[in-house]
Amino acid sequence: MSDLHSINEAINRRAGRKLLPSIAVSLSLVVLVWATLAFQRGIFAVLLYIAMGLGLREMVRAFSQKDSQLSRIDFLVAGAAIFISTWFGGIEGLALSTAISIPLLLTHLLMRGPDGFVHSATSTVWILIYLPFLSGFLILLAKPENGLYQVMTFVILVGCNDTFGYLVGVLLGKHPLAPKISPKKSIEGFVGSVIFTMIGGALTFHYWLHLDWWIGVLVGLFIVFTATSGDLVESAMKRDLSLKDMGTLLPGHGGALDRLDSVLFSAPALWLALELVRNFL
């Protein structure tokens, strides 16, 4: 037992976070997503809104350290409008509700005066696009009749990227991928993400979406790029804000935003890939 404990501690030190709680949280989230989609997709939308709201709370609190004058309530109202519009109006609803929300939020921001307006306005637009808008693509994936399989395909692809990038990086990582942004992310881990996400794409596209396996390989490669980019963007935000994690909500993961980082950039990517396949292949 002492040997296993020593090995676990060594892995935790190398990875920068606790491995077993991280795995437990990830599996619990997968089961929760599957259950809501299998029994009532509307509940999935509510679950997604709660996750998005937790992310908003973390971002507003973090950005407020840089003197941004932000209102979490404003973002929650705008996020609810965007989610409802997306659920009933599809991509047009998502685009229109986001376009309307931006000037409304900026106009409300004017009521606080001109001091720091540009900084707060920039933060407002960034947060609105980063969380409610990008999260809306998960609703677009979930709403169709095969929404369960589309979202679970998405979960598998992002999970393969994160899990195998993490494991290969911990076991074999020696060469930093982006040392100034995320020192623990390695080139070896990135290669592991590429290999296993392409395999996951081939399997899920063939067996769940009933599409050619090679399409899944290409989409898997695309998801590795978007998920890694999302992870690095969130890491850059944390470094700029002098934070280790955006929060402490999820054991082994940090805050809600630390779990959503790769998801937010990848949801539009998978939605776009599936739309292209439906229309051109």
TrEMBL record:
UniProtKB keywords: Cell membrane, Lipid biosynthesis, Lipid metabolism, Membrane, Nucleotidyltransferase, Phospholipid biosynthesis, Phospholipid metabolism, Transferase, Transmembrane, Transmembrane helix
Localisation per UniProt entry: Cell membrane
Keyword Transmembrane helix carried by entry: yes
Gene Ontology CC entries for this record: plasma membrane
Main location per the UniProt record: membrane
Membrane topology per record: Multi-pass membrane protein
Pfam families: CTP_transf_1 (PF01148)
GO biological process: CDP-diacylglycerol biosynthetic process
Protein name as annotated: Unannotated protein
High-level lineage: unclassified sequences, metagenomes, ecological metagenomes
